[in-house]
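User: what does the whole thing look like in 3D?
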Amino acid sequence: MAYQELKRACYEANLELNALGLVIYTFGNVSAVDRDRGVFAIKPSGVDYDALRPEDIVIVDFDNQIVEGNLRPSSDTKTHAWLYRNWEEIGGIAHTHATYSVAWAQAQMDIPIMGTTHADHLTEDVPCAAPMRDELIQGNYEHNTGIQITDCFAERGLDYREVPMVLLGNHGPFTWGDSATKAVYHSRVLEEVARMAYLARQINPAAPRLKEALIRKHYERKHGRNAYYGQ
Amino acid sequence: MAYQELKRACYEANLELNALGLVIYTFGNVSAVDRDRGVFAIKPSGVDYDALRPEDIVIVDFDNQIVEGNLRPSSDTKTHAWLYRNWEEIGGIAHTHATYSVAWAQAQMDIPIMGTTHADHLTEDVPCAAPMRDELIQGNYEHNTGIQITDCFAERGLDYREVPMVLLGNHGPFTWGDSATKAVYHSRVLEEVARMAYLARQINPAAPRLKEALIRKHYERKHGRNAYYGQ
Amino acid sequence: MAYQELKRACYEANLELNALGLVIYTFGNVSAVDRDRGVFAIKPSGVDYDALRPEDIVIVDFDNQIVEGNLRPSSDTKTHAWLYRNWEEIGGIAHTHATYSVAWAQAQMDIPIMGTTHADHLTEDVPCAAPMRDELIQGNYEHNTGIQITDCFAERGLDYREVPMVLLGNHGPFTWGDSATKAVYHSRVLEEVARMAYLARQINPAAPRLKEALIRKHYERKHGRNAYYGQ
Amino acid sequence: MAYQELKRACYEANLELNALGLVIYTFGNVSAVDRDRGVFAIKPSGVDYDALRPEDIVIVDFDNQIVEGNLRPSSDTKTHAWLYRNWEEIGGIAHTHATYSVAWAQAQMDIPIMGTTHADHLTEDVPCAAPMRDELIQGNYEHNTGIQITDCFAERGLDYREVPMVLLGNHGPFTWGDSATKAVYHSRVLEEVARMAYLARQINPAAPRLKEALIRKHYERKHGRNAYYGQ
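Assistant: Here's the predicted 3D structure for the full assembly of 924 residues, as structure tokens:
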């Protein structure tokens, strides 16, 4: 019965990923962390969303050891573990192969901040981390994927609390947030922002980034000290 | 029990916005006005459409004072108030972040009138108001957003009774009409017109605007003194 | 009770148009003809598909006189009448503002025959009739729309029995067939063919038209004297 | 009662094709083979998916002779027979006119391997076989279509066990796998990969193919001797 609540939260967030149309088949996974116990719950590898049950969720610690569960955890588990270990305020992580997000990743380009929909959630372009060097791919791949993400943020001086999403070049998006639900929310927002930026650039290849005053205004309406959006 | 009918009209128009796929999460809002009482009903800020109840709708006057309601009104309330105050024949206003409409706004381009679908509803390109000057953004932002819209119409000599929609540069669309339902209708039509113009220009970048005779014919079939469309 | 069967066929084909996602609101209409009685059934003007009832369908003769019905017929009725009068083997006609079909019409371009999906249905590019001359628009517009279509076919030497669809420049598609159901089928096929040709040209602007041997083979598998497709 | 299980497997895979949105009307077919008996089950020609019943499925041998069934088999039956005869480890075959897959076929271009979604399933670009020579089209067309596919694989040195999909130039995709269900799965994956590559190239026409180390890593995570994806 241990971890029942954590498994349920992880289970529901995984179903939400599917219900939002962000994944086909088993192309994605969500995890939810319990900081007090030093473990996280994650989707089992290769299990269809339709067949997934709360008790199938696997509990893993930050050293990638299975704490509870009969199934093999997601093949991306080590990436989640690295992010939880390094970014201490994250409560949940989502990974998808959502179409427009992946398209930008395959284009190896940051998603430029083009409008207020983007600025309502973050003040930066969505970073696209470069594909890894060959020796890192051939080594501990999923662990190194986590390092690739945190290195990208370190090099660019980005704060994971303010930029809750990244594209892995040629792969796809990882998003996070206070909870698994919030991580899924950021996957959905990212997909929409990716689609809007794609279309805007198709209409007008010279369309500029959003001006700084609008970036600040929209972000602070929702996130700043004097935020006045929501209840 | 006061304002019950007004709240109900506003509530249903907000649900319609969601049912038509024009919004995700809380990215939009609809209001409905009662001219006799000098108030309008508007969606509360940041409340999910799935959770929204008629009694959650907030009643506000044209000076942005809450007349009735326990929740904070939409963060865009001042824009609605300004438009109601200045454009006296409007009955309802809708704001969305619908994908193709936003894409044109992010491209900072008017949507050219390319076909009869567009001319069935308006005879002009859909205007895209320029992003605001920084001091207006940093000031009373949502109020100034309203001014930006009415200034755009004044400068271009447009009549809000004939052009029931506008794009805010880098932000997204506002639409209006005799009622909240009609405002939502115009949001849906705008999204379709935005998509058609996008595709037409992708197919043929040199495709011309619709000829004047067809613009007049189609608009007057539906809206002119001798309209013969509908019952 | 007269015309009950004809109205039912027309009603169901109109609902199918909506169910297939080819129209929003009231942006389309289907008619079904009874050659023996010299009348056709057509959707009433501006009535929502959700509210439409079989008894609302209007019966009109080829001189555009209402034979039975309490509602005003579709504003495009005269176009239907002209086509029925001139093309004697047509059993039904459909008109939509479906997105990709309209996009090609707004681009004022024929849809090139690019693949076997197209050739399974017709051996020619989908013709895009030029927008009408101003005096024809300002005159008996819907009647002249019909003439514009038949003139286009005459000038190009096309046979309406082999090319069951046309685009009106800057407006949208008309399709037809042995029955109202078949006319709707052709609207759906046209929309798919329009989308495939759009995408193929975006991927490879130099992509050639389908070679003649494949055009003939695929058309004749389904339509020739020795057709062997279907039961 | 013979072949009941085989017909059921074929029937369900055909319905899945439809449920996944990969076909409209009758534009596709799936077959399932029974190697021990030297026959395969295939969809009857031109029957709507909504009307299809398990007992409608036709049983055919590798010489295209009907073994059981009252309906005419798919017009593409000879293509299936050729592939089963030549590629001895295939358990099922699917053919669709899915939109993005067809668009690349109409563009007459291989789908470049641009990301890990692609590499999770195959290590090569999706091959686009050239349209056939005229005498092959005018001859035993569907049989020759099979030859066109196996010749394409032979010329390029591709192994059908590692590349479970092909585009026929100007026509559309054929996919296969251990079972009919797996063939349909590959049709769905192909459509997604086709869409992602299309969008990536629209965003960045110079976007490179996926680097070799990532191709190998992702393919071997799922398919190699040391695969660790799934349960």
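In plain terms: The longest helix of chain B spans residues 180-203. Chain B has a mean pLDDT of 97.
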